Amino acid sequence: MAVALDEFRRRAAGDLPGDFADLERWEHRIQRDMLLGLAMGVVAGALAAVSVRFAPAQVSAAADPYLVVAVVILAGRLSLGFGWALVNCTLTAFGALISRIVCVAVIGGQSPLDGGVADSLNRLLFLMVLSGVLASLTRLSDMWGDVAAGGLAVLFLVDDVDGYLNLLKGAVLPVWQWAAGAALVLGLACALCLRPTLPSRLRASGVAFGLVVVYTLTAAF
């Protein structure tokens, strides 16, 4: 068991550099990934804020927060290993948050730090960072990569489950279909596009389906 865990940690950290030249390339790529993640977060947060303020409700429902989450997933997928994925995804998430606050101050709208919105901010930031870390683990070539891809898909699909259950309870959600569509597309993309082979995609889809069923039964009853 200890050997298996050590092997998992080693491969999750990425291929270690073999000499000083490799180490220098690693350092440059890490710096680039950190700056790229922060920049992508700033741009995504600004676009999300602009869509909420000026775009139709259908567009803003699909873009906020799924555009930012998609960018965090990209940052995690491009990172060199688990630890750097955690750092890059945190930078991306906070870059999006800061740009969102600045845009709200400039163009108006509801700040993510206001009232009831702030209550769910910590949960959203946690889920964004978690999604980026899972995206990094999807680079593993064994079953752990399949589990990570399936778990990543579940983070989106449970939003559809929650919305549908609320509709059954009589809640009025006028643009829910647009948000649900965005979540469904991203969930399927995580299970299917982040795995290299058909068997691994089927396994990731099976993990996602099983977890969604368990969540649905737990939430409904």
TrEMBL record:
Keyword Transmembrane helix: yes
Tree of life domain: Bacteria
Keywords: Membrane, Transmembrane, Transmembrane helix
Record has Transmembrane helix as a keyword: yes
Segments passing through the bilayer: 34-54, 66-85, 91-109, 175-194, 201-220
Name of protein: Yip1 domain-containing protein
UniProt organism field: Microtetraspora fusca
